[in-house]
Amino acid sequence: MASDPDFISRQTRESKRFYLDLNPPPEERLSVVCGGVERMLPDYVVERSGFPYFGIELVTEGHGWLVLEGQRFRLSRGVAFAYGPGIQHRIENAPPGAMRKYYLDIAGSEAQSLVTAAGLLSGKPVITARVGELTELWDKIDREAGENTSFSADICQLITRILLLKIRQRRITTGEKSIPKSFQTYEHVRAFIEKHYLDLSTIEEVAQACEITPIYVSRLFKKHASIGAYQFLIRLRMHHAAELLLHEQMKVKDVAEVMGFADPFQFSRAFKRVYGVAPSKLVSRHESSSLPETR
């Protein structure tokens, strides 16, 4: 059995690794070199003056410390960071626990810009939310690398691009010690809307149920989301309306009534703002595309 490359630490007690391309072509825009998940030994310490590739890491369990270019940061669940050529870094476990982290090493002419866009080369780690979404993508890369087909390299680099976009989407702060209280409140409000959107029509109703002000609801979404609070609510409601129209084959006036609109006109206007087409036209298009061909 081949031994691990020299840059892979042996100071682990559990690990699952893959090696896809240890000699990536310099002309490639993006190559996945290797990656995996590992649990540290209590005395785990890795210190490097640089790295041949761009390494991306995400902590999922335990605690540790990271030193980037002389600055020291606490590592805990949800903290992501990166390093690369010429970037001094030191990673250590905080005993007595055993830190668990995912890692992915990439190369190519676009690697640095992609990692930078994700906020991982600012000299500070980032805190991310919804860690499970990120590890799911990491696991997909691992499974695809294990397929070892002629398609594997291309599929892995495409998933890597999605992973970096997801980190960009889910990052909360840079260099903070913990997840901000405002983000925790935002997650609570968002989850409430997702669960009760059929019974909600205004942000005032959301605010009252969550015991905060409508202005604060708007501020939370402005700070932590790429969509406004009301837009988020109305999109969920109109998505359900589209399901009723297209799959339950309900009439527009009936959907308007079920969704709590005063009349079909108000419903149609709200629907068009979200989808860019009136519900009646959407139904007509759907029906015409479903008709059998005439002979």
UniProtKB/TrEMBL annotation:
It holds the Pfam family AraC_binding. One of its GO terms (molecular function) is sequence-specific DNA binding. Signal peptide: none annotated. The keyword Manganese does not apply. It comes from the Bacteria. Keywords: DNA-binding, Transcription, Transcription regulation. Residues 187-285 form the HTH araC/xylS-type domain. PANTHER family: ARAC-FAMILY TRANSCRIPTIONAL REGULATOR, TRANSCRIPTIONAL REGULATORY PROTEIN. This is Virulence regulon transcriptional activator VirF. It comes from Stieleria maiorica.
